[in-house]
Amino acid sequence: MSTSWVPLLGTVEVKGADITYVATTITEGPDAGQQRVALVKSNINFESGEASFRVTLSDPRCACQLVLNHGLGDELFVGLRHGGYAIAKFKNGKWEFITGTAAVELPVGRPIAVRVRVRGSQIDLFVDDVKVCSAVESVQASQLALFLQGPTNFTVKGFAATVQRPKAFVVMQFSEQFNALYNDVIRPTCEAFGFEVVRADDIYNSGLIIEDITKSIREASVVIADITPDNPNVFYEVGYAHAIGKTTILLSDRRRDKLPFDVSGFRTLFYDNTIGGKGAVEVNLKKHLESLAV
Hints:
Blueprint: E1 5-9, E2 12-15, E3 18-21, E4 38-46, E5 49-56, E6 63-68, E7 75-81, E8 84-91, E9 94-100, E10 111-119, E11 122-127, E12 130-136, E13 142-149, E14 154-163, E15 167-171, H1 176-192, E16 196-199, H2 200-204, H3 210-219, E17 222-226, H4 232-243, E18 248-253, E19 268-271, H5 275-293
Parallel strand pairs: 15-16, 15-17, 17-18, 18-19
Antiparallel strand pairs: 1-4, 2-3, 3-14, 4-13, 5-10, 5-14, 6-7, 6-13, 7-8, 8-9, 10-11, 11-12
């Protein structure tokens, strides 16, 4: 499918693969004298992967940022802005600076290569192949957009995006009972929704350490955890997922007496360890995954 762009705000000229921001000034109202911002949106549906482009600025006060989560609650702006390189959030009409450089004058007169890598909630910004900042924020499927602003015209060239399958990270005790639930229900259901499924024991078996577990959780779009037994590893990983705001689906065998207090307030899919019970888990898990795809 070819990439197409539609201007939604400001003055933008799209010619083939080139996107040109045309600087204009607000002439009336309380914002008179300020530069108009521009927003152009693509047909690229994106949640995980990489997006890259080149831009040559003639003024360091310009801004050229990739917009993630466009049209959703927390829009994320990643790229170049007056003052350097930044990852910022726009929510409820207010800007929130997340991370970036404090005071760097953007280079002018030469192409700047910008690359944004997203793995689950891990966002990395590269400028000229140097990683300049990173953040952990919730990224949802949405069409990519570009935010453009400045006192002079500039053109974005060579925009490219590589979309990767979102990951589902599965946490559970490693035993025959849970292996059957994983192989018969969780894995095929997630794969049917387009997820790449990774289970924690795949990482443990390779001899890697806890940093790799937390990295896998950050890079996942959803964490699915069976909290039936009081397994320290499982609860550590669930706690980490909750701490970074990761979408988490909890499962538990109905025979468990009660859940620990710290997770008792979270919605949990209870199941019976029978053929019919696993069928019910599949139905409810599909409902949760469908809500993520909206």
